[in-house]
Write a structure and sequence with these properties.
The protein is of the alpha/beta class and about 350 residues long. It has 14 helices and 9 strands. Helix 3 links the parallel strand 2 and strand 3.
Length: about 350
């Protein structure tokens, strides 16, 4: 077994981190349970000056475990892409596996990722998110369920697929370090969608991206509607900026929220002057709202969880925040063009 271990590539798990006191220990313990030899793994955590007990949790883990090696580095720009890039530069592994501080990889996560890369199945490999509630409240459970529902996320393969396949993007991702350096690291001008943008560049260079359901991680969703709204507004805002560079990456599920919000807004204005617009507005919004209610009650009954009745609030928050952020970004860009 020792001779076999010598032939295995060294792996660096890179993690951007900020104020993850409650989950960083879960991540490190999950890494500690990997099937891959722990002496062949290091964890590089780029911390954006956490204000809670995150660093103490990391140091406590390091004191109790000699393997895997944990390196803690600072992330002065305090953004996710800068954290990934800083951790990657400090990493000594041949293979980089990016994870979030509020995720928990399954035991075969590293082993399967390395196997796929070594067999040249793709240039970037990843897997499925098992969305978990951020806490035990009803609204947190509803948010987690909504984040894994097709009405909330459309055809996002990494949330709904059960089949291994080539895709446009994967959550987190695993790749050779030289591939990461060749493509050009993560774009630090993007504060969201940075992984999608990286994968778009990878595909432009002829690279392939593979999603495999054997690679799974628990991902803890936002706890409140306020936090969910901020998250999806940020996603929508930065998605438009990314689409300016890669317009062909737009997907139907991403186009629907801003189009829906635009139609609601236009009909609301027209209804002040055109009576028929009021009827169309009422039918459109009514159909949307009652379909949300139906999904909530149906899921609550089939899953036997009363908290899922609150799913409409979560899904509506996701749709309107994402679409609103997208439209705000679009209008901001148009205003800059017209004022030049």
């Amino acid at each position: 077994m020792k001779n076999q271990n010598k032939e295995l590539p060294f792996v660096s798990i890179i993690v951007p981190c900020y104020n993850e006191e409650k989950t960083i220990g879960l991540l490190l313990e999950a890494i500690n349970q990997q099937q891959y030899p722990l002496e062949k793994i290091e964890v590089v955590i780029a911390d954006a000056y956490s204000q809670d007990g995150t660093k103490e949790k990391i140091l406590e883990f390091s004191r109790k475990n000699t393997s895997p090696l944990v390196l803690l580095v600072d992330n002065p720009p305090q953004t996710i892409p800068s954290g990934v890039n800083i951790a990657a530069k400090k990493a000594s592994g041949e293979i980089l596996i990016r994870l979030d501080a509020h995720s928990e990889p399954n035991p075969e996560y590293v082993n399967t990722s390395v196997e796929l890369l070594m067999n040249k199945v793709a240039d970037n490999v990843g897997g499925i998110w098992d969305i978990q509630p951020g806490e035990s409240t009803c609204i947190a459970k509803a948010i987690a369920r909504s984040a894994a529902h097709r009405l909330g996320v459309g055809d996002a393969k990494y949330r709904v697929s059960k089949v291994a396949q080539y895709v446009d993007t994967v959550p987190f991702g695993a790749f050779f370090k030289n591939t990461f350096e060749k493509i050009g690291c993560f774009d630090e001008t993007l504060l969201a969608n940075e992984d999608y943008e990286f994968n778009a560049r990878l595909k432009e260079h002829g690279g392939k991206i593979w999603l495999d359901p054997r690679i799974r991680s628990k991902y803890y969703a936002r706890k409140t509607l306020k936090d969910l709204s901020k998250q999806y507004w940020r996603y929508g805002f930065w998605k438009y900026i990314m689409l300016q560079r890669y317009p062909t990456t737009i997907r139907w599920r991403q186009a629907i929220p801003p189009l829906f919000i635009t139609s609601i807004g236009l009909l609301a204005v027209l209804s002040l002057f055109v009576p028929i617009a009021r009827i169309i507005l009422g039918v459109e919004f009514g159909a949307y709202f009652f379909s949300m209610l139906f999904i909530g009650f149906q899921t609550a009954i089939t899953q036997k969880e009363i908290c899922y009745i609150l799913m409409p609030f979560a899904i509506i928050t996701m749709h309107f925040s994402w679409g609103g952020g997208f439209l705000f970004s679009l209008l901001s860009s148009l205003r800059k063009i017209t004022t030049k």
